[in-house]
Amino acid sequence: MKTVIPYFLVLLAAVLWGTTGTAQTYLPQNAQPLTIGASRLAIGGFSLLIIMIAMKKINFKTWPWLITLICALCMALFQPLFFTSVRVTGIAIGTVVAIGSAPIFSGLIEWLFLKMKPSRAWVLATTLSVIGCGLLFLNKDSLTVNPLGVTLSLIAGFVFAIYTIVSKALLSKVEAIPAVAMTFSMSALMLMPFLFIFDSSWVTEPSNIWTILYLGFMTTSVAYILYLFGLQKVPSSSAVTLSLGEPLTAAVLSVFIVGEVLSPVSWVGVLLLLGGIIVLTFSGRRRVKHIE
């Protein structure tokens, strides 16, 4: 049972990420996604950073700055890459390519560069999950396959895979909570210009404060703390595959809270996604095979 708990932590993080879309429906329609991203990173990162500094959990002199900078850069890049790809090529294609390609990139990087061969359980779970993700989104609206948008989505998926792999290296040097605090504070600084480029006056409106605080604390701070705690025991490629629980959660919430209606094909996608997650979680943990 102990080997399953880290998988559940990663999955719980994905569930929290999946509530982001529903939470954003309570924000003004003119709120730019990049402004929302910058705000949630700032709230989640800076609040944790203040607490960690007060608790003397961060030693700036010995901190692994280079690894943290790479993680922060990946998180900062993912936001504009993903949201721009969705705007260019549509929600369906942008989401499927970005989220679906991330576990594939992660598995390939581990295999080719870290000499870690994926297990059959990971291959099966990833295949089921990626196909499920495709069925969930690909029939939602008229499809627009824009080469630039698809390219941006692929880069976004690659960037998230790199973030996960590098974060695992960061966790070998520092604890999970200080790692989240430093990474997301640096990411927030990188995205700060968007708060001035776009209208961000909605952030301080009383009706929006609780929503943005939820996005900052729950879907950022708490979610990534859970993700990194789980990542300590879960292979990077498996963690990225489990992150596909995000679109699964978003789909379920869209039905029961927002009131959207899923087609039969989308429900098949939901079942395949759920099946992939179950296969990976209850396989215990992937037995890493090193290539001689």
From TrEMBL:
The keyword Calcium does not apply. The chain crosses the membrane at residues 33-55, 62-82, 88-114, 121-138, 144-165, 177-197, 209-227, 239-259, 265-283. It comes from the Bacteria. It is found in: Cell membrane. Keywords: Cell membrane, Membrane, Transmembrane, Transmembrane helix. It holds the Pfam family EamA. InterPro entries: AA-Vitamin_Transporters, EamA_dom, EmrE-like. Residues 6-137, 148-281 form the EamA domain. It is a multi-pass membrane protein. Its main location: membrane. One of its GO terms (cellular component) is plasma membrane. Belongs to the EamA transporter family. This is EamA family transporter. It comes from Paenisporosarcina quisquiliarum. The lineage of its organism: Bacteria, Bacillati, Bacillota, Bacilli, Bacillales.
